[in-house]
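Structure in, sequence out. Go:
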């Protein structure tokens, strides 16, 4: 199971949407937003700090992208804020695939407005630094 799958399941567990990996009827996707539905979110990785070769910890950066309707930006902002509120400071949790989420820290002070997509739907993003412990053959536990 990938880290993004684990995080999508965590977002669903936190009541922030529905993750259905083989179905377009969900509201949580990765790594990009699909054409529909209008109101949904995507989760993606975008780098992080250099990892130690001896310690079993990584600090990837995660972005959630939230889309609302073309007529009202509030649903996208509210979804982004709810995600920020739920994840910022969350830690000491085992994710569905066995990854240990040590801590999630919001980068910035909350959601950021990204503008409108090609269909004029409003979009917001939230960014996080996550500290995770994943078992690797080359690093001790």
């Amino acid at each position: 199971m990938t880290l993004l799958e684990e995080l999508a399941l965590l977002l669903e567990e936190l009541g922030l949407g529905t993750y259905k990996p083989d179905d377009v009827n969900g509201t949580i996707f990765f790594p990009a937003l699909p054409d529909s539905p209008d109101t949904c979110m995507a989760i993606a990785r975008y780098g992080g700090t250099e990892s130690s070769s001896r310690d079993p910890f990584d600090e990837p950066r995660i972005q959630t992208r939230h889309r609302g309707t073309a007529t009202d930006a509030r649903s996208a902002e509210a979804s982004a804020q709810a995600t920020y509120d739920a994840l910022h400071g969350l830690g000491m949790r085992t994710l569905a695939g066995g990854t240990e989420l040590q801590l999630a820290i919001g980068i910035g002070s909350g959601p950021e407005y990204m503008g409108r997509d090609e269909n004029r739907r409003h979009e917001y993003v939230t960014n996080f630094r996550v500290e995770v412990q994943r078992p690797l053959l080359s690093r001790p536990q």
